[in-house]
Amino acid sequence: MQRLNWGLIGGGEGSQIGFVHRAGAEIDRLFELRAGAFDVNPAKSVEFGNSLGLDPTRVQGTWRDLLLSEKDRPDRLDLVTVATPNATHFEISKAFLEAGFNVFCEKPLTTTLDEARRLEVLANERGLICAVNFGYSGYPMVRHMRSLVSQGVLGAIRLVKAEFAAGFLADSSFDDNPRVRWRFDPEQAGNSLVMADMGCHAMHLVTFVTGQKVRSLSADLATGVEGRGLEDDALVAFRTTEGAIGRLWVSGLATGRTHGLTLQIFGEQGGLSWEQEQPEQLNFTPMGKASRILERGMDGISKEAAAANRITVGHPEGMVLAFANLYRDIASEIRARCTRSRSADPVLFPDVSDGRHMVEVVCAAVESSRNAGAWQSLE
Amino acid sequence: MQRLNWGLIGGGEGSQIGFVHRAGAEIDRLFELRAGAFDVNPAKSVEFGNSLGLDPTRVQGTWRDLLLSEKDRPDRLDLVTVATPNATHFEISKAFLEAGFNVFCEKPLTTTLDEARRLEVLANERGLICAVNFGYSGYPMVRHMRSLVSQGVLGAIRLVKAEFAAGFLADSSFDDNPRVRWRFDPEQAGNSLVMADMGCHAMHLVTFVTGQKVRSLSADLATGVEGRGLEDDALVAFRTTEGAIGRLWVSGLATGRTHGLTLQIFGEQGGLSWEQEQPEQLNFTPMGKASRILERGMDGISKEAAAANRITVGHPEGMVLAFANLYRDIASEIRARCTRSRSADPVLFPDVSDGRHMVEVVCAAVESSRNAGAWQSLE
Amino acid sequence: MQRLNWGLIGGGEGSQIGFVHRAGAEIDRLFELRAGAFDVNPAKSVEFGNSLGLDPTRVQGTWRDLLLSEKDRPDRLDLVTVATPNATHFEISKAFLEAGFNVFCEKPLTTTLDEARRLEVLANERGLICAVNFGYSGYPMVRHMRSLVSQGVLGAIRLVKAEFAAGFLADSSFDDNPRVRWRFDPEQAGNSLVMADMGCHAMHLVTFVTGQKVRSLSADLATGVEGRGLEDDALVAFRTTEGAIGRLWVSGLATGRTHGLTLQIFGEQGGLSWEQEQPEQLNFTPMGKASRILERGMDGISKEAAAANRITVGHPEGMVLAFANLYRDIASEIRARCTRSRSADPVLFPDVSDGRHMVEVVCAAVESSRNAGAWQSLE
Amino acid sequence: MQRLNWGLIGGGEGSQIGFVHRAGAEIDRLFELRAGAFDVNPAKSVEFGNSLGLDPTRVQGTWRDLLLSEKDRPDRLDLVTVATPNATHFEISKAFLEAGFNVFCEKPLTTTLDEARRLEVLANERGLICAVNFGYSGYPMVRHMRSLVSQGVLGAIRLVKAEFAAGFLADSSFDDNPRVRWRFDPEQAGNSLVMADMGCHAMHLVTFVTGQKVRSLSADLATGVEGRGLEDDALVAFRTTEGAIGRLWVSGLATGRTHGLTLQIFGEQGGLSWEQEQPEQLNFTPMGKASRILERGMDGISKEAAAANRITVGHPEGMVLAFANLYRDIASEIRARCTRSRSADPVLFPDVSDGRHMVEVVCAAVESSRNAGAWQSLE
Predict the structure, then answer these.
(1) Rounded Cα–Cα distance for residues A191 and B17 (Å)
(2) pLDDT tops 90 at residue A77
(3) CB hemisphere CA count around C310 (13 angstroms)
(4) Could you tell me how far CA B300 lies from the centroid of its own chain?
(5) Would strands C103-106 and C130-133 be described as parallel, antiparallel, or unpaired?
(6) What ipTM is given for this predicted complex?
(7) Shortest CA distance to A57 belongs to which of A73, A79, A80, A41?
(8) Element housing C321 (H / E)
(9) Cross-chain CB nearest to A299 (options C284, C288, C299)
(10) Do B258 and B172 contact (CB within 8 A), yes or no?
């Protein structure tokens, strides 16, 4: 099977997320990196592209040049990944969608809700993919949670608890450093720090696993370090579209928590609990019974989890393979659209409506917090 | 040293908390059970008291008879523990305080704020102890947390996160059982279920460990099982008197969590994390350094933790010894007051003002939730 | 029900094991401390006994005086606990058994196999209890393991793995201290250090849980710190009487392991795993299924575990209550023998034949190691 | 930088290890898969190679054809990975080494010690790399353990404890299946099952981390399931070349342990503990201090661990990146040999002498066990 042509914007020298995208896209030989603009500095962009051994005619200094050079090629890109600073996501994604490219955009999709809605309309009108990288949804055991919930193993969902709390903003001694300071400045960084950066990941997992959206919320966005213009900690009470109770805590001040993304789902018939730092295990407690430790790769796992599983149980697969699962889903969907058929495999990548919904959640949380916790309804 | 005379109201046949009180009070030979009224059924009360081998003249069928028979004895009780249903705490504690007895009351101190304030005034006026059983504050490593915070090891506290979430209310098949149904009925159970039952424990730990009170809060009290008149899940955003950010989650719907009480404290210089189900360990992360697992009984532990420590490190001490630490503190304070001196040991039991503050917190949470999350100030 | 009369030899001022014995014996009100000789120093012994508020005529300076004063009393002791240095166990236990007292001896029962056999014959001839304090067998979840195995839940047992490895002998800077040095001196301490001190605990759990004895073994007793005359680390391969494969590791050099006692049992149909530092949980994996976390106090626990359970699930019970379970068993047995009936409750305390078998195991391990690992058969 | 030419023998359709090799070799763009013989069935081999999009002239049906077609090409392979059944390792590796190719052989290097020695001589005489895939040595925190030990952070090493115990051989219902039965048959599988398959991994980690070899050992190889001709459980006592005490347990019967590889190192100044199922963390306890949880990617990590680290701390890297670290080391060494220089980076892949030493260990364990545990010296 011919590999699909893939391009990357951003993710150049020194970028860890760039490495994970390249590894995740190519590891299954479904995509091959053909073109890119890797750095905001055009010279560095070219240098990096050449270091990867790409065809020099497809390495560009800017995303605009990439667009120009690719749009009329017969072997043009099947997918463009946008891994640039948040404020540029809208403009770049819009331009590539308008030129007919499928896009895989880093989260958050945009920094305003209006922009997100425009991208959603655009992608839908053109019949193009505009995936959004909520990468944790690629873990096999997250997909198994989703499958168990959709099979009704928990009964109706009553309660969802999500956390994404770590300590990466706890050291205030960097706050005067211009390379860090902008993050806390609403003029440069937008209306939210940890909700936009971390909260949307946790909340996407909630919607991914339950199959429900957020209907309303009340939020407290707080700043624990003096002088910061945006929140470094947030607490959100919410309700889902089917009425489940929701609780979310997000923090950058939680020294001692290395990553700190966890998800717990409680229904009429049992509960589930998962932690990103041990992504291979899922704790499942049927009502009134002992808790069970479900393992990635164990016998009897759901087909969604089995499809996302590569290595023998007991050997950690890690984050790269979670990204690879999103790329595999996108490849399936690209091929299915080409042949006007449906993919035989589960296709579970977060799409443009997920991306837009998460922008809505962040905006509603900001609005609620400004109104002293008043409940906000989402569309 | 002569053992102090101790009496117990409630805690009779079949009561687990009664066993823990008796074991905790007597294990250090500081108190000796001399008298009591153990059951709402007078005949059962007498039967139980006799089964304990007590002097039959000091075993009574009701707390009123106990009060009458004890108040004029020369060897009258030095302390009375009140382990009866919540709605009776006020009346019994008031009566014994008025008669000059020291009281150790189960939590919550009362079911209304007005009652709590009256007990506080009464105890203070009479110079009597009115301790409240927030028993988790007896664990050595909780006391070590408190000591580390007060020594400034974390710097100023920025953020506090407490949870008390378990699954004991998840099975709704008992809701029609009259022995359970009253818990969800505001007329019988008061204004709150999980906040009053569990939330006050978690919040007391917050105040105990930080040395700060709750200044304001916004709450979402929710019911996940149809037909219940009181909340079975709650989320509370709060601020402490010194401005720390607070987050509290309380639930009875969290199937798979056996007990679920945890406390995390984050300051300018590091973080602490503790879980009641593994009470012997405390996780401490100095800013920018590796996390350390502190063990009860290890070298270099604080004097507060060392004073609460009995068995060699590595052998779990458990809940009984946590209760014993409160009784030991109360014994020290009784003796100190008798001799108008100060106790040489740390005296850390929760007192009537702690009990009153927790009633305030519960009432404010109920009020906030009724007002769609509006922030409430506490005194 | 009348409390039984209990006496204690050793366990005085500063003794942690003495505290655990007193607390464990009295917490259920089945025994009451009436008499004792608590310290090798007669004056201190008397002082300590008086501090406990005992009848001064029953507090003695030496165990010989205790024996003399108790043996003809009408209210003589129903049980004597021997918590003295190992080398004195034989002489004291023998004297009290000969005088018709039930004995509860700290482990190891004796320091030579001949002595152990003599105590076994003596206790059996006299129809007296000579229990041995392998205290970890009092934990409810250890008893649940035993019950699951005896019910055949694992099928035939194929493999047993026990560890007792901690770091308490790792700091060699104390080796010149005379108060420590004797432990490493065969002339003073007997033929074994960690096998006799720790290995016998782990091996007793093996026999307790499987219901099988040790049939043969090959051992490597090693010394990791120069200058020590006895082993501070041991590895033992063994076979049980029904042919299961056995593996035991014991160490005092394992810095970072706080207590380090663990037991794993593997059979034809599944496996069990338990750790003393989290004694409330038991991991059970049925063949080909997910692992389950069994909790003390959960629904459906075995009657042996339920009988040993006191506090609501989720609140750690700890070591004192494990000891209390042995004392409760012994009380049941004393009463059953008085009435020539059988105890209605499970009676699971380690008896003199368990104590003798563990001395055999230690002696065989020493012999094997001296013979370069040659396999030794036990009787 | 030009990618090196890489070939793979074995690891075709359905092979998990084949996927991990391909992903690990290519993820850093240091190697590119150019040629191979992927299956014992020549037609399937060709089909698989074509599915990967390789140059059809470099896809062969057998390893012999691969050798013939590659040996005279100007762009011949820089490295051949041998991922075939154990019994074929010797013949294939020998043939490729004799033709001047660098080889990366799956473990065990060979099934007899004589063969291993011959490969060692051959590789050394030719100046070729003959790496052996003890893949766990690629984990960053294993490399950090090695660095801490070599820096002397633990002082002299006293004791090493390794385990590799899982349950994959516990279900005996497959024993009659011919596809499984050969594993237990000495005629087909060689002299050892779990020691050769798992024990060599654990023992390699011991030697890798301590920098010491095995000097002597005493082993008990046992069979827990009737009818098996080779051991499914093993216990080994050993001594290292510098006199440290060693303990190794290996099992296929340990139901409930998913993977079960752990390593603990204890020295004069502290201890280290690592588990393959949570490879990102390393527990370090300095003597007399609290245990610390070291995280991959944390500040202050050793240069060996930092060089093996790719993704932000908190996001699991997993097994593929551990393999990638071995491939990176091999690439560095190939380039260094080409330029007759030394690699600037740490080069830590297991080489032919490691592979030969592990064959020695397995053979000595078999011999010891046949002689009832008699100690065997290694060269």
Answers:
(1) 50
(2) yes
(3) 26
(4) 28
(5) parallel
(6) 0.96
(7) A73
(8) helix C319-338
(9) C288
(10) no
* Side-chain half-sphere exposure of D216, counting CA atoms within 13 A: 12
The 10 Å Cβ neighbour count of residue D137 is 25
With contact defined as beta carbons under 8 Å apart, do A350 and A192 qualify? no
Strand, coil or helix: C317: coil
**3-state secondary structure (DSSP) of residue D371:** coil
Rounded to the nearest angstrom, the minimum Cα separation between C107 and chain B is 17
Q: Is the Cβ–Cβ distance between B120 and B90 less than 8 Å? A: no
Once rounded to an integer, what is the mean pLDDT over residues B104-121? 96
Cβ neighbours of A354 (radius 10 Å): 21
Average pLDDT on D274-280 reads 97
Residue D373: strand, helix, or coil: coil
Task: Give the Cα-Cα-Cα angle D336, D337, D343 (nearest 5 degrees).
Answer: 25
B273 CA: distance to closest CA in chain C (Å): 18
Interface of A with D (CB under 8 A): 1-3, 16, 19-20, 23, 26-27, 29, 51-53, 166, 258-260, 276-280, 295, 310-321
Q: How many other C-beta atoms lie within 10 A of the C-beta of residue C241? A: 14
Domain segments of chain D: what residues? 4-133, 139-312+356-377
Structure tokens at D347: 């080069």
In chain C, residues with a C-beta closer than 8 Å to the C-beta of B16 are: 310-312
- Please determine, looking at this structure, whether the domain spanning A139-308+356-377 carries the CATH number 3.30.360.10: yes
CATH number of B140-310+356-377: 3.30.360.10
Residue pLDDT, tens place only, D47-94: 999 999 999 999 999 999 999 999 999 999 999 999 999 999 999 999
**A-chain residues near D16 (CB < 8 A):** 310-312
Q: How far is D296 from chain B (nearest CA, A)?
A: 11
In this structure, are residues A78 and A6 in contact, taking their beta carbons and an 8 Å threshold? yes
Q: For residue C138, what are the contacts with CB-CB under 8 A and spacing of at least 6?
A: C308, C321, C322, C323, C324, C325, C326
> Alpha helices, DSSP H only, in chain D?
16-26, 42-51, 63-70, 89-98, 113-126, 140-150, 178-181, 186-189, 194, 200-210, 303-307, 319-338, 352-370
Q: Examine the pLDDT at C237 and tell me if it is beyond 90.
A: yes
Residue with tokens 């024996």: C67
CA distance A378 to chain D (A): 32
- What CATH class does A4-133 carry? alpha beta
CATH architecture of the domain with range C139-313+356-377: 2-Layer Sandwich (3.30)
Q: Which of C312, C371, C355, C375 is nearest to C120 (CA)?
A: C355
Cross-chain residue pair C290–A293, CB shorter than 8 Å: yes
Q: Calculate Rg over the CA atoms of chain B.
A: 21
For the ranges A183-197, C106-120, D241-255, which has the lowest average pLDDT? Answer: A183-197
pLDDT digits (tens, 9 = 90+) for A177-195: 887 788 888 888 889 999 9
CATH superfamily of D139-312+356-377: Dihydrodipicolinate Reductase; domain 2 (3.30.360.10)
Counting as contact any 3 or more CB pairs under 8 A, the partners of D are A, B, C
Tokens representing residue A312 in the block: 């023998």
Cα dihedral B234, B235, B238, B244 sign = positive
> What confidence category does residue C342 fall into, taking pLDDT thresholds of 50, 70 and 90?
confident
Determine the pLDDT at residue C45.
97
Structure tokens at D374: 């008699």
